[in-house]
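Pilot study result, target chain (281 residues):
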Amino acid sequence: MKTSIIIATHNRPDSLRRLVASLAPEIVTGSREIFIAENGTPAPTQLTIEGVPLKHLHEPRAGKCRIQNRAIAQASAEILVFLDDDLIVAPGYLEAVEDFFNTHREFAAMKGRILPGEDPEKKVGPMAAYLDLPIADHGEEVVEVRGVLGANMAFRADAIKKVGPFDERLGPGAGGHEEETEMSQRLRRAGFRIGYAPKALVYHEVDPSRANRERFIRIARERGRCRMLHEKHSALDVILKNAIAMTRLRIAQLTRADLSRIAREERRLAIARGMFDGLGG
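Predicted structure:
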């Protein structure tokens, strides 16, 4: 088996079907396999795509990392691809992933390219600044990067075996976030390198319900708290980050910066406040 595709999913049956259908033309029995890694639902989603054999793992308890780790344990391929359920892949996606790893032996992990499926501003207007889409676009060339992004990432199976599975304290259904950040840090500490693959392209859904300031700030604060679970930061460091973030936001407000700048500074402050939340353990 050359490539195992692991799709983490929770209560998005229509999106999941669209993603699997976009992968279907590239699924070659014997060399590529798809795992549906479903968590947090009382029963598995009924999903059938003609000509595409699916290995469906289901866990009623919430926990994206838990179900991904089960899939890792069962996968038999040299390359492990991880996709979120709210996107579709561009034609030739799997070929691009395999070509990346074949051509760039120096990299143990891949950060794929993620673009919005629609123009966010046309879809939701100025509030697009609060969508918090996991967009990854470093241009047209392969370059080394510091980390992967969970919506579209891949690893050499041997590298995962060496550093271990995802930290189940993190990610949706647990701490909420940062699982890919923590994995990236472990890979780099073990001497592995991570590369960006521009041709491994996916398109992320633009869901207007995500354009919500309250949600945006809540998620950022959760990220900060998750950061304290897997990184060491002193109380002084966290207090300093909060002071700097508050100052930056105030300057942006006083200078009447545009909404995208305000949103960035609000996010920075919410992360810092989440880190402060996490000081107590």
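One observation from the pilot: The CA atoms of residues 138 and 251 lie 29 Å apart. A full batch analysis is planned for the follow-on phase.
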